[in-house]
Amino acid sequence: MERTLVLVRHGQSEWNLKNLFTGWKDPDLTEKGVSEAIAAGNKLNEMGMKFDVAFTSELTRAQRTCQMILDGVGQSDLTTIRDLALNERDYGDLAGLNKDDARKKWGEEQVHIWRRSYDIPPPGGESLKDTAARTLPYFITDILPRVMAGQNVLVAAHGNSLRSLVMVLDRLSREEILNVNIATGVPTVYKLNVDTTIASKEIIDL
């Protein structure tokens, strides 16, 4: 029995393009982001991938990416479950700010700490540890059981919500996860063993 989990970060958003901290703000995809999502769906279709269920966040950029992938594999009407547990990390007071402007205001080192440390949140926002505190329980109770039951599961979400899942799936340390970046629109296909360890992992080249 195959146990397949596909993780995809949303395609490029309007605020990605503008170099803004996004978090729980809800900008749409750019034309490039749409192209990335379509390409991901087409590639998964070429691989013969079909899904039993899809999960996404409550943010537009992830929902649209999810739908375009499902369109690409010929499953436009597949059951899709939306939950804020999969939302991007909340950047708090940084949300909506240009990243370069933030560096000028607080300094390069401080902004780097907020962005890349595991457990130091920006003012009013979430650290990666905080993000994991809401994504992992949801993953364990709602997503993983379907994978382990032999379903093919798609999760279209965000850079940091997915990084928190990758940290657990790949058994990465707090230091190792800081160097992990997830590209927009690029699917990662996991095959899991019966004990939830990884049988194989493939980052799909678009």
UniProtKB/TrEMBL annotation:
GO MF, one annotated term: phosphoglycerate mutase activity
Residue(s) at site: Transition state stabilizer: H158
Record note on quaternary structure: Homodimer.
Originating species: Cohaesibacter gelatinilyticus
Presence of keyword rRNA-binding: no
Pfam families, A to Z: His_Phos_1 (PF00300)
SMART domains: PGAM
Catalytic activity: (2R)-2-phosphoglycerate = (2R)-3-phosphoglycerate
Protein name: 2,3-bisphosphoglycerate-dependent phosphoglycerate mutase
Enzyme class: isomerase
Family: Belongs to the phosphoglycerate mutase family. BPG-dependent PGAM subfamily.
Active-site positions on this chain: H10 (tele-phosphohistidine intermediate), E88 (proton donor/acceptor)
Domain of life (superkingdom): Bacteria
Alphabetical list of CDD domains matching this protein: HP_PGM_like (cd07067)
Binding site for substrate: 9-16, 22-23, 61, 88-91, 99, 115-116, 159-160
Enzyme Commission no: 5.4.2.11
Pathway: Carbohydrate degradation; glycolysis; pyruvate from D-glyceraldehyde 3-phosphate: step 3/5
Keyword field: Gluconeogenesis, Glycolysis, Isomerase
GO biological process: gluconeogenesis; glycolytic process
Protein task: Catalyzes the interconversion of 2-phosphoglycerate and 3-phosphoglycerate.
